[in-house]
């Protein structure tokens, strides 16, 4: 984009189409931004509560672990942990919202009743059960949190990017293109007047020459 | 485990023991930062993992290139959790990001 384009009709047409294009892009981006913000507010509330919930649950879990360690020693806990039944795994799908890839998650409940954990309940102490329960709860929370928080993070970054684009179009690009188009049309009008006057002068001169000649 | 994706934990040994007790199979007790980073980057490119649970401290201290990669990938999901020392204030916390993007502080309303 040249700052001082030639004042021709071609350039004027080009500048006008550029303005139109920029306006269209601006409108579209604005819509994208609004859609993203709407999506964002939909999941915002969930994520904030979950994060603090997870923090407190992890704290509880670590406390339980420390207590169990003091009672049983690390080795016994490790031994129990080796025979725990495995969680069945998760299913992660990637959803696409306005070009933002957002993971969504399908998971089964991690928290299990006491007897189906897999290690011998008789052979271990209740302290270990407490640890297992606390960490199961924490894992459930992690699953829930993982999709919302991740999605929010991504949405925010995209919103910021889109907002910046919208603003740069609205306040920089479009005004600049408009002034350019205006400049060209002014120059063209000026040239028209110029040539009009020139023609008049020539005509007058010719008439004068004819009259005298 | 046909179409299901695996869950991984990369943390210190206490945390991994806890998660193993909850039934998470793939736990990596790597207290050293470099080893943990290497594992994380290895798991990021492994499509059989769905979620990677890491400690906040690991994610906070890791290389910026790896951090960027973590942010860019949608799958596997990387979830930071507080370690036994308790939650640390993330440098780019959600509230800060929100404030920057929307221009208003949502966390203070409550």
List the helices and strands and how they pair.
The complex is a heterodimer of chains A (213) and B (110).
Chain A: H1 9-72, H2 74-82, E1 90-97, E2 100-107, H3 126-212
Antiparallel strand pairs in A: 1-2
Helix pairs in contact in A: 1-2, 1-3
Chain B: E1 6-11, H1 13-21, E2 26-29, H2 33-44, E3 49-55, H3 56-61, H4 64-72, E4 77-81, H5 94-102
Quick overview:
The complex is a heterodimer of chains A (about 210) and B (about 110). Chain A is mainly alpha-helical. Chain A contains three helices and two strands.
Describe the 3D structure.
The complex is a heterodimer of chains A (213) and B (110). With 213 residues, chain A is mainly alpha-helical. Chain A has 3 helices and 2 strands. Chain A has helices at 9-72, 74-82, 126-212, and strands at 90-97, 100-107. A two-stranded antiparallel sheet of chain A has the order 1-2. In chain A, strand 1 (90-97) and strand 2 form a beta hairpin. Chain A is rod-shaped. The mean pLDDT of chain A is 83. Chain B is an alpha/beta fold and 110 residues long. Chain B has 5 helices and 4 strands, in the order E-H-E-H-E-H-H-E-H. Chain B has helices spanning 13-21, 33-44, 56-61, 64-72, 94-102, and strands at 6-11, 26-29, 49-55, 77-81. Chain B starts with 5 loop residues before the first strand and ends in an 8-residue tail after the last helix. The mean pLDDT of chain B is 77. At the A-B interface, helix 1, helix 2, strand 1, strand 2 and helix 3 of A face helix 1, strand 3, strand 4 and helix 5 of B.
């Amino acid at each position: 984009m040249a700052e001082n384009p030639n004042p021709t009709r071609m350039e004027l047409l080009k500048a006008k189409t550029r303005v139109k294009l920029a306006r269209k892009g601006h409108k579209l981006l604005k819509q994208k931004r609004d859609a993203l913000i709407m999506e964002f507010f939909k999941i915002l509330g969930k994520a904030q509560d979950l994060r603090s919930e997870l923090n407190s649950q992890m704290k509880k879990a670590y406390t339980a672990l420390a207590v169990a360690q003091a009672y049983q020693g690390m080795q016994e806990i490790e031994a129990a942990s080796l025979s725990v039944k495995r969680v069945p795994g998760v299913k992660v799908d990637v959803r696409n919202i306005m070009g933002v890839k957002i993971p969504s998650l399908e998971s089964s409940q991690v928290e299990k009743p006491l007897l189906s954990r897999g290690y011998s309940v008789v052979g271990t102490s209740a302290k270990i059960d407490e640890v297992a329960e606390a960490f199961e709860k924490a894992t459930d929370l992690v699953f829930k949190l993982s999709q919302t928080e991740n999605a929010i993070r991504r949405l925010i970054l995209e919103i910021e990017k889109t907002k910046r684009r919208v603003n740069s179009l609205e306040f920089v690009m479009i005004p600049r293109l408009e002034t350019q188009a205006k400049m060209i049309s002014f120059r063209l009008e000026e040239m028209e007047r110029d040539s009009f006057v020139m023609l008049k002068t020539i005509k007058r001169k010719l008439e004068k020459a004819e009259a005298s000649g | 485990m046909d179409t299901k994706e695996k869950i991984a934990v990369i943390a210190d040994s206490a945390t991994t023991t806890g998660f193993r007790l909850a039934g998470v199979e793939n736990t990596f007790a790597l207290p050293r930062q470099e080893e943990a980073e290497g594992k994380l980057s290895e798991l990021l490119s492994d499509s059989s993992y769905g979620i990677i649970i890491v400690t906040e401290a690991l994610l906070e201290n890791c290389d910026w290139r790896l951090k960027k990669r973590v942010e860019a990938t949608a799958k596997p999901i990387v979830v930071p959790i507080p370690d036994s020392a308790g939650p640390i204030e993330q440098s780019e916390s959600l509230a800060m990001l929100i404030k920057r993007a929307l221009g208003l502080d949502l966390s203070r309303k409550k």
